[in-house]
Design brief:
Elements: H1 2-17, H2 24-32, H3 36-61, H4 69-86, H5 93-102, H6 106-134, H7 144-184, H8 188-205, H9 210-236, H10 242-245, H11 249-263, H12 273-285, H13 290-306, H14 308-319, H15 323-340, H16 343-351
Length: 353
């Protein structure tokens, strides 16, 4: 519920920032202009992204213990529901539930979780970068040259990240040892942390059984973020007020980019960084009024983040899972793994059936 409180704080901030220019009646009118059929479509697209995540996780699990995407689906909905309701406490619910249901080690699924995040970053960065680089509508925006340059840099960064992943896949131990020696000059603790993270990523990549599975995982990653990007477009164009309805589809990708960057800079104690970033992009880049920007940010938050809750709770009831209990168990298990296992232990645990 911290997210709801964060939105209220953001609303107060916007009103303070714009002084008396913020009109609550205009905010209400903007919400009244929503075409609900389009919001239903946006929620369906968001749910589709959870389905493609289930397909991708089944690819990662294939070498350890083959499972169908349908078997992976409850963990996706329950896991993201835990994050939506409980915040950071629910972060490791998905790998924990997969490990428990498929009877594999939690360590192996933590490694998969690490790889999944890199694939997400690669796909999201790729979609955003290509859109900023080739879309003609970006030329009409303030800072368009900076956006275009950022797009090219993003493409280069995504390709570099892919090359690093391939290198770690085949020479993870050597790269981890090199990082340990290089960063050890600055800080032994930091160097050991980097070493362990590289090895964890390497062990997660071991879950990809060959180039065919790698291609499958990439396809599902781009499908996932393609569906999310479409959900952003549909939400923005669900409003009939001109300042939102007239935004070109390519420019809405800036909102997704802002949301991702904002998620790395949450407000102290309450979060809400993504919503602040979306409102900033809408008001300062796309020149949307504060009322319409606020309505759009709240709607995006509900559709792309909170809409999973009904389905997640339904899956939790069917699976007889207590969200709070499983979140605590998963966090305790993660802390135990981090404190008690070294790299060799992690490799052995990952290889266990």
């Amino acid at each position: 519920m911290g997210g709801i409180f964060a939105l209220l704080v953001i609303l107060v901030y916007i009103q303070f920032r714009t002084l008396k220019s913020f009109e609550w009646s205009t905010l209400t009118h903007t919400f009244d202009s929503i075409r609900w059929s389009r919001l239903v479509l946006a929620v369906a697209l968001t749910y589709g992204a959870y389905v493609t995540r289930a397909f991708r996780w089944s690819v990662f699990l294939r070498p350890t213990k083959p499972a169908t995407p349908a078997q992976m689906l409850p963990a996706q909905f329950i896991g993201f529901t835990s994050v939506a309701i409980l915040g950071r406490l629910g972060e490791f619910v998905r790998p924990f539930l997969v490990a428990r249901r498929q009877q594999v080690t939690f360590t192996s699924q933590l490694a998969v979780y690490t790889v999944e995040r890199v694939f997400d970053l690669l796909a999201a960065a790729g979609i955003i970068a290509v859109t900023l680089s080739v879309s003609p509508s970006v030329r009409n925006l303030p800072y368009h040259e900076q956006f275009r340059r950022a797009g090219y840099i993003g493409i280069a960064a995504a390709l570099f990240l892919a090359l690093i992943a391939v290198a770690i896949r085949f020479s993870g131990q050597k790269i981890a040892d090199l990082a340990d020696r290089s960063f050890g000059v600055v800080s032994k603790k930091f160097a050991h942390g980097i070493h362990d993270k590289i090895l964890a990523f390497s062990y997660g990549l071991d879950a990809i059984a060959g180039w065919g599975a790698l291609l499958e995982a990439l396809v599902y990653s781009f499908l996932t973020w393609g569906l999310i990007a479409l959900a952003y477009v549909v939400v923005v164009h669900s409003f009939t007020v001109r300042e939102l309805a007239a935004i070109p589809a390519a420019q809405t990708i800036l909102l997704m980019a802002g949301s991702l960057f904002g998620s790395f800079a949450q407000l102290p104690a309450i979060g809400g960084g993504s919503q602040v970033a979306i409102i900033y992009v809408l008001t300062d880049v796309l020149r949307v009024g504060p009322e319409a920007a606020t309505a759009c940010a709240i709607t995006l938050y509900v559709v792309t983040f909170l809409s999973v809750i009904p389905a997640g709770l339904a899956f939790a009831r069917v699976e007889q899972v207590s969200l709070r209990n499983v979140a605590r168990e998963s966090e305790m298990e993660e802390e135990l793994e981090a404190s008690s296992q070294g790299p060799e232990d992690t490799r052995q645990a990952h290889s266990l059936p």
